[in-house]
């Protein structure tokens, strides 16, 4: 029995049982029973299960999968004497990482030989910040973590130090403490290709004199050496491919004079985005101390930056260092602040453009098809609005629906919007590049994500059970007086028509909840759909406790009964917590 003390009384509860749920037991019996009633799943019955339930198609795939299951069972001594898989062995294999919802052996499978503009790219914003946008520290540590997590676009803001003789990285005109540029460059070099061999794009926003530009150019060349990709000409007719740029670091920026002339681009009037908050649910709160500190700073100064160094701006406008300019492989074009002009496609030259979150959202209403056409050849980066001082994020699907490749995320701003970004880039082996759906590259008929689209497929999701919290959390973590009361929320994030969220019933007082709950989701654009899964602990007296989450690309889900690992709020995998779910497409 499990006991909990309440004042001077002890409450006793039935111990947690990790036996298969009734639905899983029925599946086992359906195949083991047809195999002669031996109480074990023989090889032929296992093959039938793999073919009929798990969706393994060809004979070779079925044989390979059967060998893998039997090897797992033999390794863990789960085979019955005389052969055959016991119900315990069957259940343990279903819950193992080898049976994950995303195939762990698939790796990179998209065609990586297309121009960069054909891919969504895992993109960070203010990659050096450790917390909020106004008063947190700057460090090379967040850069290293982002690269290890698969991020392929790192942003550095370059400013002169107080003596005007060296370069620092910080969020300019704020109280963020600086970090040395050389530390950041060395960190990029060390971690660039730890998790992915495909190119790292280093976007620089510089506010430097020509003298300091020359210093930066020397630092970049000496640090990166042969890793640095140098373009043969300033005007590229088409971008190279990720495969062409494998193992390379690319510099993307625009001359400082243009930065100064358009410096208000990061300070444009920003309006709140029209997101489906009723579907999303309230955001999981960030670190309370960080939120409070940022709020105090913002209220005191009304979201304004500290006074600019006008003398430095005048010096910067005197010229651009040629050596520094030669390092720029992907040019960032100067905006004309006329969307008709900004989105014109030059057939002779490709480039990159940046838009603030609010400006972009307005553009999707008036120039949706032009954005899609622009991103078929050029790169578009969207960055969060400046009022997101706590480093929160916007809905990245707002960008992906129209083909924007670089939807920049504050990697230190944990929450549902960042979970979507992490979910998207679990696709294609987690390499940081995901090939855009073909309809976003179709030049004959422009995709309109706001139009009424027919249902293309239906995804049936069954949530059987969950386990692992009892190993990863203290007995009183969720409730001091009893075992937790878990429920699951399951839904889709995608085009507006597909976006929805549903939930199971609450299972009371149980560390291993069994829901056996089935949902169905009609999908108009499965190629842009992400499966959202969250588990919470119900609390009648205060806000429900968070118990884990994941987000998975629907187009890469494996059919059948699969193991789904859950992650903490900060995106780190929970050591033991998994759900057992079934996915069926019709």
Automatic annotation (TrEMBL):
This is Phosphoinositide phospholipase C. PROSITE patterns: C2 (PS50004), PIPLC_X_DOMAIN (PS50007), PIPLC_Y_DOMAIN (PS50008). It is found in: Cell membrane. Residues 440-568 form the C2 domain. It is a peripheral membrane protein. It is an enzyme of class 3 (hydrolase). GO terms for molecular function: phosphatidylinositol-4,5-bisphosphate phospholipase C activity. Residues 258-279 are annotated as: Disordered. Residues 354-440 form the PI-PLC Y-box domain. GO terms for biological process: lipid catabolic process; phosphatidylinositol-mediated signaling; release of sequestered calcium ion into cytosol; response to stress.
């Amino acid at each position: 029995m499990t006991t909990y003390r309440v004042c001077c009384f002890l409450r006793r509860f039935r111990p947690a049982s990790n036996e298969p749920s009734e639905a899983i037991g029925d599946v086992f019996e359906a195949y083991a029973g047809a195999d002669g009633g031996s109480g074990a799943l023989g090889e032929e019955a296992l093959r039938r299960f793999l073919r009929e339930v798990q969706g393994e198609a060809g004979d070779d795939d079925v044989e390979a999968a059967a060998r893998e299951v039997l090897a797992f069972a033999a390794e863990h001594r789960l085979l019955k004497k005389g052969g055959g898989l016991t119900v315990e062995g069957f259940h343990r294999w279903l819950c193992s990482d080898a049976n994950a919802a995303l195939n762990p052996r698939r790796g990179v499978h998209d065609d990586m030989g297309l121009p960069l503009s054909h891919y969504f790219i895992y993109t960070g914003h203010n990659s050096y910040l450790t917390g909020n946008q106004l008063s947190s520290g700057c460090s090379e540590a967040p850069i290293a973590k982002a690269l290890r997590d698969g991020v392929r676009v790192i942003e550095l803001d370059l400013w002169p130090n107080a003596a005007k003789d060296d370069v620092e990285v910080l969020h300019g005109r704020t109280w963020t403490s600086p970090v040395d540029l050389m530390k950041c460059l060395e960190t990029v070099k060390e971690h660039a290709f730890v998790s992915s061999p495909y190119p790292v794009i280093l976007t620089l926003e510089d506010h430097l004199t020509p003298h300091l530009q020359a210093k930066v150019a020397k630092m970049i060349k000496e640090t990166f050496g042969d890793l640095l990709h140098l373009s043969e000409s300033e005007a590229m007719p088409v971008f190279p491919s990720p495969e062409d740029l494998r193992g390379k670091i690319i510099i993307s920026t625009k001359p400082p004079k243009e930065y100064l002339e358009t410096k208000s681009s990061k300070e444009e009037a920003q309006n709140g985005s029209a997101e489906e908050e009723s579907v999303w649910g309230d955001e999981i709160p960030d670190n309370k101390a960080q939120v409070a500190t940022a709020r105090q700073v913002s209220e005191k100064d009304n979201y304004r930056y500290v006074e600019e160094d006008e003398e430095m701006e005048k010096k910067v406008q005197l010229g651009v260092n040629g050596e520094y300019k030669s390092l720029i492989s992907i040019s960032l074009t100067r905006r004309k602040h006329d969307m008709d002009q900004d989105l014109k496609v030059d057939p002779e030259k490709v480039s990159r453009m940046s838009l603030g979150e609010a400006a972009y959202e307005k553009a999707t209403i008036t120039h949706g098809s032009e954005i899609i056409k622009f991103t078929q050849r050029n790169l578009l980066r969207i960055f969060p609005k400046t009022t997101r001082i706590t480093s929160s994020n916007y809905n990245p699907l707002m960008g992906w629906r129209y083909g924007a490749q670089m939807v920049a995320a504050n990697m230190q701003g944990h929450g549902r919007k960042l979970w979507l970004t992490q979910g998207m880039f679990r696709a294609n082996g987690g390499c940081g590049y995901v090939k855009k759906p073909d309809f976003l590259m179709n030049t004959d008929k422009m995709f309109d994500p706001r139009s009424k689209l027919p249902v293309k497929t239906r995804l049936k999701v069954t949530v059987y059970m969950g386990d692992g919290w009892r190993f990863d959390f203290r007995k009183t973590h969720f409730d001091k007086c009893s075992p937790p009361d878990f429920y699951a929320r399951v839904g889709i994030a995608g085009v507006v028509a597909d976006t929805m969220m549903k939930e199971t019933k609450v299972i009371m007082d149980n560390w291993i909840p069994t829901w056996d709950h089935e949902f169905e989701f009609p999908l108009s654009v499965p190629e842009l759909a992400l499966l959202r899964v969250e588990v919470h602990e119900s609390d009648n007296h205060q806000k429900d406790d968070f118990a884990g989450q994941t987000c998975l690309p629907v187009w890469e889900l494996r059919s059948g009964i699969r193991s789904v690992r859950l992650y903490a709020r900060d995106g780190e995998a929970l050591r033991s917590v998994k759900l057992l779910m079934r996915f069926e497409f019709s």
